[in-house]
Amino acid sequence: MSAVSAGTASDAALEALFVPFATGELTLPAQGGVLMLRAREGVALREHIRAGWVLQQSFAPAADALARHHYTVIPDPLSVIDAPAGARLRATTPAERYDIILVLPTRQREETRLLFAQALSLVSPAGIVVASVANSEGAKTAEADLARLAGSVGQLSKHKCRVFWTQPGATPDVALRDEWLALDAPEPIAGGRFISRRGLFAWDRIDSASALLASVLPDDLRGRVADLGAGFGYLACEVVERCKKITSVDLFEAEGRAIEPARSNIADAVVRSGREIATRVVWGDVTHGIDGRYDTIVSNPPFHQGRADQPDLGRAFIVTAARALAPGGRFWMVANRHLAYEATLASCFGQVRTVVERDGFKVIEAKEPRS
Known about the structure:
By secondary structure, this protein is an alpha/beta fold. The protein is built from twelve helices and 18 strands. The chain folds into two domains: 12-183, Rossmann fold (3-Layer(aba) Sandwich), CATH 3.40.50; 187-369, Vaccinia Virus protein VP39 (Rossmann fold, 3-Layer(aba) Sandwich), CATH 3.40.50.150. A hairpin with a 2-residue loop joins β6 and β7 (161-166). The two termini are 24 Å apart.
């Protein structure tokens, strides 16, 4: 299961980010010279963006939304991952420097620290880093972290958010910057069985819902398998290790920062199995459909957008699964027990059964896809 990045039609943090430029406290370059980390599409961006800006976003749905406006989008400021088909993405390198780096931090503190360290690595010698955080999402803490890294910061409050920025030419604490850059490195978890990355959903443990699904998967799954919302690859690895008759497994994941760990984990699982199993890890938004035809699909769908439950995400995963299954295929999913997926399952499959309900979760098997 992947984490879902925040971002709504009314995006207060995005709107607040541009307030110091509108008031004249800060000035945007006439053209180019701007990098935006964790960029999100929205009215405020459309009103202020200028030619030559580079927007970074590793969450595929948000990256796709930016690419639809023909903006220059990169998945990661310091590396390259595979792009979904049709996306207008390009690579950037640490050699590039920017006069202004705009940052929309996440709710995960260590990932936000990583973003600040990346920004201070890529800003030009006389440039500034500007960030905006909702008060309810840890604005004071984020501001304190940037000040700790770069020295004193300017600040204003607007739209129930805090906007803060470094002084021109600020010199970062190099040791701290390097320490925070290292937060991006994959880390061993689960006794070294997997690697994961800070900022991913349940990054440092096996998610209890996924573990429940894995515990009841039958060992007779065969043929081609897909994992929708694969995260760092736990479910796919469990399928490889438990089911001796599978021939291939494809992992689909929206968060680009999960791709490298997922590739490593599934490759290790195949080696441990001692069998020849084709694997593929795909960065993209599965709610738009997936390529391929599968005998089995497993999934722990995401269901949060910001702080609110969004069962439509899980419903879209169900529809995608039904369309991608072979006629005799099977869909296994786990979900929070209170989420109402039954009507969508019934409309997409001829047979649906609840396999187990435990600890607030339910595992469902669906057959006879109506695709």
